[in-house]
Specification:
By secondary structure, the chain is an all-alpha fold. The chain has one domain. The chain is built from six helices and no strands. α1 (7-38) crosses α6, α4 (76-89) packs antiparallel against α5 (91-100) and α4 (76-89) packs parallel to α6 (114-126). The radius of gyration is 17 Å and the shape is globular.
Length: 132
């Protein structure tokens, strides 16, 4: 028996395929926006030049040692935003950092300003595991 998929299912599948085909590039662009918002010192080689030279997500890996050392002196929103970004790079480290910031759930992201919320939303929407 030859059964056809409903047209809505075919359309949804095609839409998802189009989205995820572009997702790595969109994730990288959102990541770069996040780096600009929070500061280049925490990512890649820590310079603005490094940000502009970056051609892949690997060029802007978070500096985990510096971030963990600085977490206690950052503002709560800065720490929350950085920790949320780190969660995409290393979920275990990001979760530990989020706990240190007093993060209790997704609703806490509501404490971020619109620009930071948009970065996190775009990262989430386009995340398909940390890839080089």
């Amino acid at each position: 028996m030859n059964q056809r998929m409903p047209v809505e299912s075919v359309d949804l599948l095609a839409r998802e395929q189009r989205h995820f085909a572009c997702a790595p590039t969109a994730f990288f662009q959102a990541w770069k926006r996040g780096v600009v918002v929070v500061g280049t010192q925490w990512f890649g080689d820590g310079t603005h030049e490094g940000l502009h030279r970056a051609v892949s997500i690997e060029d802007l890996r978070p500096d985990m040692l510096a971030l963990n050392d600085a977490l206690g002196v950052l503002s709560s929103s800065q720490g929350l935003f950085l920790s949320a970004m780190v969660s995409f790079f290393n979920p275990r480290e990001g979760a530990a950092m989020l706990r240190r910031c007093g993060f209790e759930g997704l609703a806490d992201l509501g404490d971020l300003d619109l620009e930071r919320r948009q970065v996190i939303a775009d990262l989430l929407l386009n995340y398909s595991h940390w890839r080089t």
